[in-house]
Amino acid sequence: xxxxxxxxxxxxxxxxxxxxxxxxxxxxxxxxxxxxxxxxxxxxxxxxxxxxxxxxxxxxxxxxxxxxxxxxxxxxxxxxxxxxxxxxxxxxxxxxxxxxxxxxxxxxxxxxxxxxxxxxxxxxxxxxxxxxxxxxxxxxxxxxxxxxxxxxxxxxxxxxxxxxxxxxxxxxxxxxxxxxxxxxxxxxxxxxxxxxxxxxxxxxxxxxxxxxxxxxxxxxxxxxxxxxxxxxxxxxxxxxxxxxxxxx
Length: 248
Fold this sequence. Notes:
The protein is α+β, with helices and mostly antiparallel strands. It is 58% helix and 10% strand.
């Protein structure tokens, strides 16, 4: 068994990220508001059906679908990424601009997924999840804070390590794997909306790019070290072995 999971950053916000916390809370509330078949029925009503958008119907599902999740695992990983990367972006953009940014990334990801279905099929398949919008948050974070430190938990069979990695490397590997899925065509055989991820990521890059230019572009990177304004100090970059706690 192998798992690489980001679980902590060293970049506390200067102010409380009210919008980011509210988005996380809203996703959790929606997921827990119903159970079983009742939740599934509601999810199918508010999911994104690409064919509906192509026919110029039900544009509201470009957003409603982004607050629904298939299961607890789907919700957990999406909210973990939003928690890790959203606060610093909200800190830089401000509360309401961040909310607008998040929703625009959600809409952009949904539209790009819809257009991909014209080319590769899946027009009648419902799509749910916040991954597209969160990919946009990741894209914005990638551009503004490429050298921010993210702690990754590496789990191989029974061994655990914690590695601090730079955001540009960790997120770069993730986007490479998404592009690789497209190149090999494997995205057509899994249950992941790869083009929503890619669409959200590049929407995030494009939306943040004007701000990055105004801040000075590469000069901004040199001035900040490619990190958020208030990074915590870390001891070193050596892997830390985590002891295994066994039940008795």
